[in-house]
Amino acid sequence: MTRHTDDGETEEANGPDEKREGVDGPDEKREDADGSTTGAAPSSPAPGVPEAGRDEQPSIFVPDDGEVPEGTPSERPATDGGVESAAGGSDSADLDPDAYDPVDVFPGGDLDLREGADSCYKCTSCDTSCPVAEVDDEFPGPKFQGPEQWRLKRKDDHDIDESITSCSNCMRCDDACPSSVPLSQMHNEARGQFVESQMEKLSREYIRNRILSNYRFFASIASKVPRLANAATKIPGAMKVGEKLLGIAGDREFPDFATQTFREWWKARGGAQVENPDKRVAYFHGCYSNYNTPEVGKAMVRVYEHFGYEVMVPPQKCSGTPMFANGMLKDARRHAETNVENLVEAIGEGADVIASCTSCSLSLRQEYPELFDIHGIEDVSEHTYEALEYLRINEDLEAELAGTELADEQSFAYHAPCHARNQGLDRQAVETFRDVDGVELEDVGDSCSGISGTYGWKEEKYEKSMEIGAEMFEHMEDAEGDVGMTECPTCAMQMEHGTGYEVEHPLQLLEDAVGA
Amino acid sequence: MAIDSDVLVVGGGLAAVTSAVAAAREGADVRLVSHKASTLRQASGLIDALGYVPATEPATPLRDGPPTAGRELDRDEWPDPEGPLADPFEAIDGLPESHPYRILGADALREGLALFDDLAGDAYRGGHTDRNALLPTFGGSVKPTARYPAAAEAGLASDDRPALIVGFRSLTEYDARAFAGRLEAAGVPFDVAGAEVEFAEAFRADAKVTRLAKALDHDEAIDGVPAREALAKAVAPHLHDAVDEAGGVERVERVGFPAFLGDQEGDEVRAELADRLGADVFEIPMGPPSLPGLRLEDRLYDALDDAGVRFETGNPVVGVETAADGRVEAVAVDKKGRETPYGADAFVLATGGLVGKGLDSDREGVREPVFDLHVPQPADRYEWFVDDAFGDQPYARFGVRIGGDGRALNAEGEPEYDNVFAAGGVVGGADAAREKSASGVSLATGIVAGREAATEATQ
């Protein structure tokens, strides 16, 4: 079983500093996979291409150069929404509320966020949930960044406030909002527009952010020579140079690169060991499990094979999480095109998409359909699950784990990543392992770890990041266990950085518990 | 395969937590699913039971004729409500028959409050008596309430010690001097002064209460002075601001602050300020964003964990997945576009009212969106309201009707399903805003629904 095992490294030439040509058009590879060009109507979908179509709507982030997407809202006259007059009765067909599109009221197209902005009733729950506003006096909070900024920037002469770059994209405001205002979508849009039109492209900040968001590009190079790369980051003063030159927090330790990436391991073991057309999953390992912690990916494969799943490992790029957080939406879109194309093909072969990183799963599920219009992107969103979540839905994990015992007793200090919270997954690890003997999982509280992907890597945010994390560090130290546990690789970095604890992924513990 | 439990509670507020704990204590395996983070963070943190019995008939008969919404014609007028009540239990018989307290009985309220006392522990006061306490709230009014945070204790309006109310210019929803004036006008039995002091100016103009609380939690340095010391220094010159009846100046014995005195370390912050000021320190409950609400949320969710309840937030329950023989077997949870069935032997609906979105409305009508339960309402929407904003608004009492065992009823007054119960704001019949009864209704309906659901599930 070697399907979907090509290493996906062939299109690595689109690093941050190389302007890639032809991004706009459907590339060769896509035509091969689809058997048709993307622009064509999906009248006879090729195998692996679901009959999508619901997602075919204009989105702002057209590939490049401000090209106007087809189907931009027409210049229909704005109406007042068709409210009946007090005199009673409506006297004009124009006032039919069903025919009224709120976004038409404001010029400029963009995402249709008017309804979301109008849903805000200013309760400020988002502000009280914001970990940055709690420590940063310069940050006005999500209520401003979301609905208020959205209204302000309807005006042509209004720049986007620079403070948008201080949002760490933890997305806790989404979870806090009782009115379902799409706050993170508003933040992502504003940040993308700020970076696109207001940020100096030769500035140190822009270059630094571009590098941080394109971690995958650099990791892919470093992992060709992992030992050398690891040694290089440990040269005394190397990180200080990074701080001086680029503004990357010098106090952090750069993560080690694995000597064998997950994909290399997967290839070496001959791909899937279980074939099962009825139970297929496509593994979205993300960058970190591939280059830095392949043991997480291996645990995923072994656990899923234990439950009889056929694991596919499609070619893939970055999920976009760090790019969204830095407003690098063009980069994110380019990667998304590859991901969607390959994942849609796997879905066509009967697979659901499984991610072991909660930020990757959130990105595919929520940010992809919110920000991009790519054929099949809604299907990817609807078929994506986090690894433990999927097993809890489809397998009787409780029965499987009841009565199991771990040879070596171990207590873990568990931190739920913010992005897990938005998917309803913040308690699943604690609940799953409650009945396993010899395992103690202690939830260290609902605070944010403070690193939020790339946020804590920025020199000017480092102290805030550690201040946000202080509560978690404290609770970790109060907890019985001296091993940390979390689903998110960057939360893991922060946990390790703040306490010196080794940090594991729940899949690794599940692997031990079920003896996979 | 579905995600199964004995009892599934839909919602995340006070009623949901109460019913989940009540069910778990009956031995049921309970799961709670809340669409969003708990709205307790918007609550004042006061636990009211019944403060007023409002009139249900206008002073003069309602006018006949066409609707007059939004026009300044002769408004209907309503008599003042009875209250503030000294004893909520004694007044229950004065409520309409369709009120949840009348349906479930005074004991349900008593048991609900007892469960709350157990969950809140030493963080709350008021459990020693049936009688209401009177607490000043940030609007300058005095609210009758059954339970109150320990942090608010020194602020009781029945206390006759002179008080200073502290405010900050940047906290615009709250003016200390106007507040003190309103308290005096309300006839409180103590001398009170209000003072605006310099402290919050060190932060951005619209700093969040969480920012101020964090600074006090960590005792961050403000211009080189630790935050708690800086705050005490700013307040100290005003300790003699209160003027007694004879016109003499007196030193206050207690100082009230807006409720931002620390989040995790609130007790410590208050104790240090009290020590530095030589006066008791109390917090005045605020509107949202509310730290007392956040602290209560933390406490109640810890209690859920202790009771073994599994809970998750982030995904909404969007409807009934399967039902047969008059029973719901599973509901559908929308996980980012994919509906996942959650099965249970009994369900408790505790999704809140019109504001909490447990009830949905448009021009055509008012609906309960999860189980599509019956919501009684006048067919003509001009009968949903009366002209006097403070009158007996019919919409305020909209909601699902329940039987004496908490089961949700259909239009005929029979259980809609054998295993679906309702609690909290989604239950109709109470005018919680005018009665000051929101928390009590949640506790009373919550404990009944939780217990009965557990019985239904485990029998």
Structure explained in plain terms:
- By secondary structure, chain A is an alpha/beta fold.
- Chain A has 4 domains: 99-197, Orthogonal Bundle (Fumarate Reductase Iron-sulfur Protein, Chain B, domain 2), CATH 1.10.1060.10; 204-246, no CATH class; 258-393, Glutathione S-transferase Yfyf (Class Pi), Chain A, domain 2 (Up-down Bundle); 405-514, 3-Layer(aba) Sandwich (Rossmann fold), CATH 3.40.50.
- Chain A is 42% helix and 8% strand.
- Chain A has helices spanning 28-34, 114-119, 125-129, 142-152, 172-176, 183-197, 204-213, 215-222, 226-234, 238-246, 262-268, 286-291, 294-306, 321-325, 329-348, 358-371, 377-383, 387-394, 397-401, 418-421, 428-432, 462-478, 489-499, 506-514; strands spanning 280-284, 310-312, 351-355, 384-386, 405-414, 437-443, 483-485, 502-504.
- In chain A, α23 links the parallel β7 and β8.
- Residues 1-95 and 99-109 of chain A have low confidence and may be disordered.
- Chain B contains 11 helices and 19 strands.
- In chain B, strands 1, 2, 13, 14, 15, 16 and 19 form a 7-stranded mixed beta sheet that branches. Chain B has a 4-stranded parallel beta sheet with strand order 8-7-11-12.
- In chain B, α7 packs across α8 (266-277).
- The radius of gyration of chain B is 24 Å and the shape is globular.
- The mean pLDDT of chain B is 92.
- At the A-B interface, α3, α16, α17 and α18 of A face α6, α9 and β13 of B.
- Chain A: One of its GO terms (molecular function) is metal ion binding.
- Chain A: Residues 16-33 have a biased composition (Basic and acidic residues).
- Chain A: It holds the Pfam family CCG.
- Chain A: Residues 1-107 are annotated as: Disordered.
- Chain A: Keywords: 4Fe-4S, Iron, Iron-sulfur, Metal-binding, Repeat.
